[in-house]
Write a structure and sequence with these properties.
By secondary structure, this protein is an alpha/beta fold. Helices cover 41% and strands 22% of the residues. It has helices at residues 3-15, 18-25, 29-43, 59-83, 107-116, 129-137, 185-189, 203-213, 227-235, 278-293; strands at 48-50, 55-57, 91-97, 120-126, 143-147, 158-165, 167-172, 193-196, 221-224, 240-244, 254-258, 265-271. The strands form three sheets. Strands 4-3-5-12-6 form a five-stranded mixed beta sheet, with helices on both faces. A five-stranded mixed beta sheet has the order 9-8-10-7-11, sandwiched between helices. A two-stranded antiparallel ribbon has the order 1-2. Helix 2 (18-25) packs across helix 3 and helix 5 packs across helix 10 (278-293). The mean pLDDT is 88.
């Protein structure tokens, strides 16, 4: 079954004449007759009753009429789509980060970007550390939001600081230590520490964790696979979560107390270049305003 067979069938059904159908289709009458015979053979049904004077559509032909119209319409629309392809006007902007928790920092920023760019299509890449920086090298992401890496890890591109983030101990607001302004070493020695898995932790935070866990018993430490898991266990009373403090992500049922003797961590954006990238420039500007407003 092909489109020409269906077109011949519908034209004969409309005109009830093989000769008129041939003229309308600009083909010979034998060609139309051949297509109808072929279609009837494929369907194993007689579609028309033909005499020397008239052509009548059969009951089988009437049943097939709507099917033929629908099939031909679908095929015609499918062809038209490729003849006149729709231009994809979406403007993709790819953001990389290490933790799903950090995505909660972005809704307000992305909302403002969408106001000036209605076709904005954000794409998120949340992958392990080294793989994410490899995506930056390959320019498979436009920007990475992360803590500044120090030491041996070399990251190609530009780093722009957005905020200084304090290291805090996170514990229930009802905890006896919740009223303190600072947590010192003696406070932490009496509590189990909830730490991020070193494999899922930025180097800058790893250094802080290492310092806090020196000479601590293994039973006093609990390694967590994510920031969300650590906060969940802190809320359940399993210990004090050691984490950077983003005010926008705070849970009102928890207390966030700075740890004495720890330096703030630099949090910012890694990118290759902002030249010729208006969406990236807009993102960096809005990020700077956002983090400045919540310091």
């Amino acid at each position: 079954m092909n489109t020409f067979q269906l077109t011949c069938f519908l034209t004969v059904a409309e005109t009830l004449s093989f000769a008129k159908a041939a003229r309308l289709l600009n083909v010979t009458q034998p060609a139309v007759t051949h297509q109808i015979h072929s279609l009837e053979g494929e369907l194993n049904a007689q579609l028309f009753k033909r005499t020397t004077r008239s052509v009548e559509i059969t009951q089988e032909g009437l049943i097939f009429l709507n099917d033929a119209k629908n099939v031909l319409n679908i095929i015609t629309l499918a062809k038209k789509r490729f003849e006149e392809p729709v231009v994809d006007e979406r403007q993709f902007f790819s953001i990389g980060c290490h933790s799903h928790n950090e995505l909660h920092l972005l809704p307000g920023i992305l909302r403002q970007m969408a106001d000036s760019c209605p076709m904005l299509n954000p794409v998120f890449q949340v992958v392990p550390f080294q793989h994410l920086y490899q995506l930056l090298d390959e320019e498979a992401v436009d920007v990475i939001i992360a803590f500044q890496e120090k030491g041996q890890k070399k990251i190609g591109g530009i780093y722009k600081e957005l905020a200084q983030v304090r290291i805090t101990g996170i514990l229930p607001a009802t905890h006896p230590l919740a009223e303190k302004e600072l947590l010192d070493e003696d406070d932490l020695q009496t509590q189990r520490l909830l730490l991020l898995d070193p494999q899922r932790c930025p180097d800058s935070l790893n250094m802080v964790q290492h310092k806090l866990t020196t000479e601590r018993a293994v039973s006093d430490l609990l390694m967590c696979g994510s920031a969300d898991a650590s906060v969940t266990l802190a809320k359940a009373g399993f210990g004090i979560a050691i984490q950077p403090d983003f005010p926008a992500l705070r849970d009102p049922t928890l207390a966030y107390i700075p740890i004495n003797g720890t330096e703030p961590l630099s949090y910012g954006a890694y990118y290759k270049t902002a030249s010729g990238k208006p969406l990236l420039k807009d993102f960096l500007l809005l990020c700077k305003k956002y983090f400045s407003s919540i310091d």
